[in-house]
């Protein structure tokens, strides 16, 4: 596993724009690379097809141009399609610590939360400006402040939105939901005891 | 905020407590497990020395990597990686006391086909699986959600997920379906109208006469593709159709227990005066069969409609997306999908791999032959479906027409087994996703359509209006000429 602090109040580093609406998880992590019983190698397969030309050589896909980036800047409905956690796992293992985008598919965003990756949203204009800025400043620093819900790049600071539950989870260090929920097992039993379909067995 | 809907009621029954991060801890009544997204979760459990909390509410099957030919289903599997995944599932289920419908069980198949047909999925349940098409189970009036692997770990160890309640959009589907038009066409129409991200933040409640008139298998197909519209879950309120389907199924209690359950099932249906966050009406009267022309399920037209031009779209990003789709599919704006050459016909999947799908497709295939240039695969959604089809002689109709009759699995929907598109082959597919690379080749092209449309395309070697194959209603069928008139 990638080591990560428990409390995630901010992430920073350089940026990588990933362009396009409705980018599906089959593009992020093609299904044929899911035939592994661990997530260990997933970074190797990130956007595998999109990043290569017909001869299998790296093309000018932004992930090839901005290697070493920590903050992905994406457009609308990013991560649609399959529930595969392989997709955000691949991004995380490639080096992405946080994402700014116009919107996300629900399961993808949930998966990001499970992995401690803040996924902030901003309007189309803000995202486009940030993507353009990265193109002009490939080594420039971008910081997502999870607590104040802002993104700072160059001399600019913009407001972004981070879903309340995600913000709370990351900042308070409770994004590992297993231990959080495990402490409520006696209440779970009460809930289960009251379910007609369980009693009926 | 919604009130009095099935979603509200099921949520309340399953809510354990509110978590410090503002999410609800929600008990999952049925957890379905398969080989691709679970091994990492069992690994995490092992790392933390945790047990499976509710093994009796957890069921496993193998689907994504399952070989679909008789000879390739022998263990160990030829594909080392696939064998390793299957072996992990063997071990993980045995060690944790989880029922596993393996190849030997006779019940193996796609999670979303197996659980409904065994009666595991029932109204008023919460259902989760590491697969986005868990939305399928909403057909019973349950809340089915697809989850990631870390959430599978949560469910295995606590029986629960951490989740936030979403808004409820009622989709009222008016009208009745003409001959040759099916549930698949309804859901494709809905996604066309509302968009692939239209459902983000929502669950969809499907209702209205066109939904109520569907059988359970049609409702399963509609709910299955909720995720393609961006909704994480979609459901239909339980009714007599639901109860009749469930009675007598293997995991459904009998006698008095059944009657008691039925009371619960009836009680969780949305109230007549339920409040929704949003209501949308869609009319399917006079609708033609639907086919996709692009690279997501929202890029779809009725066969009577020409393929749109990028200029028809409002935003620059939509125009770019349309152009990318046209380029990938090798289509021109205004062109008709009728006559679009196909190389592969694929019938199966969690959307349309059920007995009624094969029955209807067989009616079309009867007395016809698959085009000589078409590779045609019929892949039952489960071994139970396969046996039923074989008992009815449906397999013979398929084989005589020139289809390969296979064993159960996800197969060419995402090509994690050996069934795959090659190069830029185009497939007429009853599956749910036409994303680039989805069917195993990055240059492959997928045209989504209903099972009968797949059968018609297989016979003609091109996208065809299936209504040409019905004796009594040929007048409705369209040809490419009709569509170019529309385009002009």
From TrEMBL, chain A:
GO molecular function, one term: lyase activity
Transmembrane segments: none
Assembly information from the UniProt record: Heterodimer of LeuC and LeuD.
Protein name as catalogued: 3-isopropylmalate dehydratase small subunit
GO biological process: amino acid biosynthetic process
Pathway: Amino-acid biosynthesis
Origin superkingdom: Archaea
Source organism of this protein record: Halapricum desulfuricans
InterPro entries membership: Aconitase/3IPM_dehydase_swvl (IPR015928), AconitaseA/IPMdHydase_ssu_swvl (IPR000573), IPMI_Swivel (IPR033940), LeuD (IPR050075)
Cleaved signal peptide residues: none
Keyword hit for Protein biosynthesis: no
Keywords on record: Amino-acid biosynthesis, Lyase
SUPFAM superfamilies registered for this protein in UniProt: LeuD/IlvD-like
Record-annotated Aconitase A/isopropylmalate dehydratase small subunit swivel domain positions: 11-116
Family matches, as Gene3D superfamilies: Aconitase, domain 4 (3.20.19.10)
Family that this chain belongs to: Belongs to the LeuD family. LeuD type 2 subfamily.
């Amino acid at each position: 596993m990638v080591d990560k602090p428990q409390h995630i109040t901010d992430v920073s580093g350089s940026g990588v724009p990933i362009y396009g609406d409705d980018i599906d998880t089959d593009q992020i992590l093609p299904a044929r690379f899911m035939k592994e019983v661990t997530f260990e190698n997933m970074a190797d397969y990130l956007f595998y097809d999109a990043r290569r030309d017909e001869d299998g050589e790296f093309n000018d896909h932004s992930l090839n141009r901005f290697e070493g980036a920590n903050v992905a800047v994406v457009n609308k409905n990013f991560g649609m399609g399959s529930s595969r956690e392989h997709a955000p796992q691949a991004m995380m293992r490639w080096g992405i610590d946080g994402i700014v985008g116009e919107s996300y598919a629900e399961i993808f965003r949930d998966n990001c939360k499970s992995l401690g990756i803040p996924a902030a949203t901003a309007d189309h204009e803000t995202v486009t400006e940030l993507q353009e800025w990265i193109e002009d400043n490939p080594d420039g620093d971008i910081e997502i402040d999870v607590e104040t819900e802002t993104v700072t790049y160059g001399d600019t600071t913009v407001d972004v939105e981070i879903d309340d539950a995600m913000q709370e989870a990351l900042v308070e260090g409770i994004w590992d939901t297993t231990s959080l929920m495990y402490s409520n097992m006696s209440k779970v039993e009460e809930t289960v005891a009251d379910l007609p379909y369980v009693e009926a067995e | 905020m919604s009130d009095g809907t099935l979603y509200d009621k099921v949520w309340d029954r399953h809510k354990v407590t509110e978590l410090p991060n503002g999410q609800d801890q929600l008990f999952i009544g049925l957890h379905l497990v398969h080989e691709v997204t679970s091994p990492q979760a069992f690994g995490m459990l092992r790392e933390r020395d945790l047990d499976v909390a509710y093994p009796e509410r957890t069921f496993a099957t193998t689907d994504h990597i399952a070989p679909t030919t008789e000879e390739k289903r022998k263990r160990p599997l030829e594909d080392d990686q696939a064998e390793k995944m299957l072996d992990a599932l063997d071990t993980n289920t045995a060690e944790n006391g989880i029922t596993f419908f393996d190849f030997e069980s006779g019940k193996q198949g796609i999670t979303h086909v197996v659980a409904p047909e065994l009666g595991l999925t029932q109204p008023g349940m919460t259902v989760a699986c590491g697969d986005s098409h868990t939305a399928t189970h909403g057909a019973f009036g349950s809340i089915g959600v697809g989850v990631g692997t870390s959430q599978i770990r949560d469910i295995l160890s606590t029986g629960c997920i951490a989740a936030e309640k979403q808004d409820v959009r009622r989709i009222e589907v008016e009208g009745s379906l003409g001959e040759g038009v099916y549930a698949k066409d309804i859901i494709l129409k809905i996604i066309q109208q509302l968009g692939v991200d239209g459902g983000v933040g929502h669950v969809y409640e499907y209702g209205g006469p066109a939904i109520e008139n569907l059988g359970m298998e049609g409702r399963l197909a509609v709910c299955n593709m909720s995720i393609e519209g961006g909704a994480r879950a979609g459901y239909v309120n339980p009714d007599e159709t639901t109860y009749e389907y469930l009675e007598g199924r293997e995991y459904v209690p009998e006698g008095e227990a059944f009657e008691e359950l039925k009371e619960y099932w009836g009680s969780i249906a949305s109230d007549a005066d339920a409040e929704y966050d949003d209501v949308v009406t869609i009319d399917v009267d006079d609708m033609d069969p639907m086919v996709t022309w692009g690279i997501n399920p929202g890029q779809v037209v009725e066969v009577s409609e020409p393929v749109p031009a990028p200029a028809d779209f409002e935003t620059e990003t939509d125009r770019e997306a349309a152009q990318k789709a046209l380029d990938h599919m090798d289509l021109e704006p205004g062109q008709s999908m009728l006559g679009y050459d196909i190389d592969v016909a694929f019938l199966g999947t969690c959307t349309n791999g059920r007995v009624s799908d094969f029955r209807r497709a067989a009616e079309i295939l009867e007395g016809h032959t698959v085009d000589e240039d078409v590779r045609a695969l019929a892949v039952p959604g489960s071994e139970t479906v396969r046996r039923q089809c074989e008992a009815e002689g449906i397999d013979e109709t398929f084989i005589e027409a020139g289809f390969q009759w296979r064993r159960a699995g996800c197969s060419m929907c995402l090509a994690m087994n050996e069934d795959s598109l090659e190069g830029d082959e185009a497939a007429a597919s009853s599956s749910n996703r036409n994303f680039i690379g989805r069917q195993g080749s990055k240059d492959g092209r997928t045209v989504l359509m209903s099972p009968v449309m797949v059968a018609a395309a297989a016979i003609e070697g091109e996208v065809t209006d299936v209504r040409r194959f019905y004796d009594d209603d040929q007048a409705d069928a369209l040809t490419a000429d009709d569509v170019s008139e529309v385009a002009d």
